[in-house]
Design goal:
By secondary structure, the protein is of the alpha/beta class. It has 5 domains: 215 residues, Serine Threonine Protein Phosphatase 5, Tetratricopeptide repeat, CATH 1.25.40; 87 residues, Alpha Horseshoe (Serine Threonine Protein Phosphatase 5, Tetratricopeptide repeat); 76 residues; 142 residues, Rossmann fold (3-Layer(aba) Sandwich); 174 residues, Rossmann fold (3-Layer(aba) Sandwich). It has 34 helices and 13 strands. A 7-stranded parallel beta sheet has the order 3-2-1-4-5-6-7, covered by helices on one side. Strands 10-9-8-11-12-13 form a 6-stranded parallel beta sheet, sandwiched between helices. α29 links the parallel β9 and β10. α6 packs antiparallel against α7.
Length: 767
């Protein structure tokens, strides 16, 4: 016998499985006709070590040596299952079944594969047979429950899960499925009650404890999740999962402390890809301290993961956000095609990822694909909401006034609030009552939030509430028309709109695309923002007569001082710049910006972004400019967050992002006397600046091609007199424009809502 097989046997007896595997592989590589027992041992150990891809390869070789060996065929089938080669696995298992028709094991494996494939009927048929053969095996009842669940037969599925835990009190998988289906069929409270019974039956089981923390987070009860996990810490401080779960629970309101626990989880389990990428995501979102340093650390942490590990939609979302933020576009594109990666995010419920997907659209087909991806997410949200609808009050509301609702967690010190303020400060009290709904996780010391609360009839601030509970809260207020203002952006609850809690509903302001829900009736636009092609929207357009926004006084005060002398007059050269978020950047767009700078001798480009503190960001962006002949010393960075308005005094001309354009940034630049050159396109997210600039009287700075973008920017750069005139006159021009007429904007808004409600509800009565 090969001495390596003998050495492997000794290594196994000494508990050195990894060494034994390496020895057996070396022996079988040199001698594929080696003993079948060596193949069996190798495959069992590869299974124990979760080395499934290697297992599939060696199982294929083993079956080649012994094509009628039942055990090897069965092992080959389960390895193929673990590597998601389902069709091949079924064929191999059928070969095993033909060899031993009465053997149950390959039948169980085949049934599990059908469940993996979401083939509920096929899985149901096999697991029903297994339950008849062995009715007291809890795993078969659970498998049958999952087959029924895959077919939306929720009640029968729940009965099977209950049977599985009745047969085995500490059956963790059965309890997890039962709590999951309770969560889907009923409420978070039912799921938590199930988990409490499970924890009592199987105390100390980490997966049950993790599930409880997850349900608490889903219910919006972040601080309850924190307290629950902290109560476990004295006995389980050495458990990596506990620190990871604690970090996830507190990250929204205490990012620095969350990072401490993310790091502790990695210390305890350094091989976990999940923990490493969670830390990378949290670092990328950390605003305290050196933001640029955190971004670079996030990038390095991501690069430390193997490409084969970054395939789950959760991981590709994290990776994409980090890679785009530092300008590593080649690595971002390598994660998947525009369609594949977007659909994976949508079908896995990651609506938030789609916002940062907009800027990657390169064709009209991509624009249609974006609509499809949003619908994919929306259909799933609608399905969840239908299973547990809100209860509508039986009695009519106690007032004849229109009840108007605004739902956003950004009704605080945030641009969304600033654009909303004209509606609250010039409210039509004779016709309307106004209610606001916020799920902001921060503290209540925000002065803007307090100011808004003082202006409206009801301000419902509920940081710890589930989507379903929020929808019921709105339904209880008997809102006639509800506006959601945040889409899927941070801490907003777009899923609430799936429950249709108000008679009519609309999206406005916070998300420049259709959310994906057919329960949202309208998307507010203006004549410029409204796309020419109806297929690029899911909702109906609700068209304001002039502008979709107005400049609220808190965001656009005269206290922002303008240096009356344009930078070109002071410096002797043109300074282009941007304060737009890098998630709107693309290599093609940056190359156009670089062409502009290259075409204007001596000009500079200034990035006014906190990413300017990141070495990776600076290096990658300077490389793109260098490719167009722009030296590194002509590209400068001001790594500022929040206090960026004074920096516009250093910029002559702002260059807009495309295809996703600026919105707030375009307004801010204009307020500081800085004109923006913008490229408009077909979809809403490509027309924000087009609307703003036309309403501001700067429509000539809007173009439709990259070539015209360069030509327009270069032409404006040569018109120093116009740059100087705009520096001192653009703010007054804005005040006199529809953007600055906040009272008229509010009147137009309320008139439009009143007429829309009258038209829609009147039509219903006549029908």
């Amino acid at each position: 016998m090969d001495e390596r097989f003998v050495a492997a046997d000794a290594a196994l007896k000494a508990g050195r499985s990894g060494e034994a595997v390496d020895l057996i592989i070396a022996g079988l590589t040199d001698n594929p006709d080696g003993p079948l027992q060596a193949y069996r041992i190798l495959l069992r150990k590869l299974w124990e070590l979760s080395r499934y891809e290697e297992g599939a390869l060696w199982a294929a070789k083993a079956v080649e040596q012994a094509p009628k060996d039942f055990e090897l065929l069965n092992l080959y089938g389960v390895f193929l299952r673990r590597t998601a080669q389902y069709a091949e696995a079924l064929q191999v298992l059928d070969r095993a079944i033909r060899l031993r028709p009465k053997e149950i094991t390959p039948l169980v494996n085949k049934a599990n594969i059908y469940n993996d494939m979401r083939n509920g009927p096929a899985a149901e048929a096999l697991f029903s047979k297994l339950v008849r053969l062995q009715p007291r095996v809890p795993e078969y009842h659970r498998g049958l429950g999952r087959a029924l669940w895959n077919q939306k037969k929720l009640g029968p599925a729940a009965l099977r899960f209950r049977q599985s835990v009745a047969l085995k009190k500490d059956y963790v998988d059965g309890w997890l499925d039962l709590s999951g289906i309770d969560n889907e069929m009923r409420t978070h409270a039912d799921a938590l009650a199930t988990l409490d019974r499970a924890i009592e039956s199987a105390p100390g089981e980490s997966r049950l404890l993790m599930a409880k923390a997850t349900i608490l987070r889903q219910a919006g009860r972040l601080r309850d999740a924190e307290q629950f996990l902290l109560s476990l810490l004295p006995q389980a401080d050495g458990q990596a999962w506990l620190h990871h779960q604690l970090a996830r629970s507190i990250a929204d309101f205490d990012r620095p402390r969350a990072n401490v626990h993310y790091r502790r989880a990695i210390e305890l389990d350094p091989d976990s890809v999940e923990y490493r990428l969670a830390l990378a995501e949290s670092l990328e979102r950390t605003r305290q301290g050196s933001e640029g340093g955190h971004i670079d650390e996030a990038y390095k942490t991501l690069l430390g993961a193997r490409a084969s590990d970054v395939v789950d939609p959760v991981y590709t979302k994290i990776a994409t956000e980090i890679l785009i933020r530092v300008g590593d576009y080649a690595a971002a594109d390598a994660l998947g095609s525009f369609a594949d990666i977007g659909r994976a995010w949508a079908t896995s419920g990651r609506h938030t990822a789609l916002l940062k997907h907009l800027a990657r659209a390169r064709s009209y087909e991509d624009r249609l694909e974006l609509v499809h991806q949003h619908r994919l997410w929306g259909d799933q949200a609608l399905d969840r909401a239908k299973r547990n609808p809100v209860v509508r009050p039986a009695s009519p509301k106690p007032t004849s006034k229109i009840r108007l609702g605004f739902m956003s967690s950004d009704l605080r010190n945030h641009p969304v609030a600033y654009f909303c303020l004209p509606l609250f400060e010039h409210a039509d009290r004779e016709r309307f009552e106004i209610y606001c709904y916020s799920f902001y996780q921060g503290d209540n010391a925000d002065r803007t939030q307090a100011h808004i609360a003082s202006l409206v009839d009801g301000f419902r601030w509920r940081p710890d509430i589930s989507d379903r509970e929020a929808a019921q809260l709105i339904a209880d207020d008997q809102i006639d028309m509800l506006f959601e203002l945040g889409g899927s952006t941070h801490m907003n609850k777009i899923d609430v709109m799936a429950y249709k809690p108000a008679r009519l509903s609309a999206s406005w302001l916070g998300y420049p695309h259709s959310a994906g829900l057919t329960t949202i009736d309208y998307l507010m636009v203006d004549p410029y923002l409204n796309p020419d092609h109806a297929e690029l929207m899911i909702e109906q357009p609700l068209i304001m007569p002039k502008t979709w926004i107005a400049l609220g006084r808190l965001a656009f005060p005269d206290s922002h001082v303008i240096n009356p002398e344009a930078p070109v007059r002071r410096n002797g050269f043109i300074t282009f710049g941007t304060a737009n978020n890098p998630y709107k950047y693309s290599p093609e767009m940056l190359a156009v910006w670089a062409q502009v700078v290259a075409a204007v001798p001596g000009s500079r480009f200034l990035f006014v972004r906190p990413e300017g503190g990141s070495e990776a960001f600076r290096t990658n962006l300077c490389a793109i400019f260098a490719a167009a002949g722009v030296a590194e010393d002509r590209v400068t960075f001001n790594a500022v967050r929040g206090a960026h308005m004074p920096v516009y005094n250093e910029i002559d001309i702002a260059l807009d992002t495309f295809p996703q354009t600026g919105g707030t940034t375009t307004c801010e630049a204009a307020w500081m006397g800085v004109p923006t050159v913008s490229q408009m396109g077909e979809a809403i997210f490509e027309r924000l600046s087009y609307s703003i600039l036309n309403n501001a009287g700067l429509g000539d700075l809007c173009v439709s091609t990259p070539e015209d973008f360069v030509a327009t920017a270069v032409r404006l750069a040569g018109d120093h007199d116009r740059i100087q005139a705009l520096r001192t006159g653009l703010r007054d021009q804005l005040k006199a424009s529809p953007l600055g007429q906040t009272e008229q904007f509010a009147k137009d808004f309320y008139d439009l809502i009143a007429s829309t409600l009258d038209s829609r509800l009147g039509a219903r009565k006549s029908a």
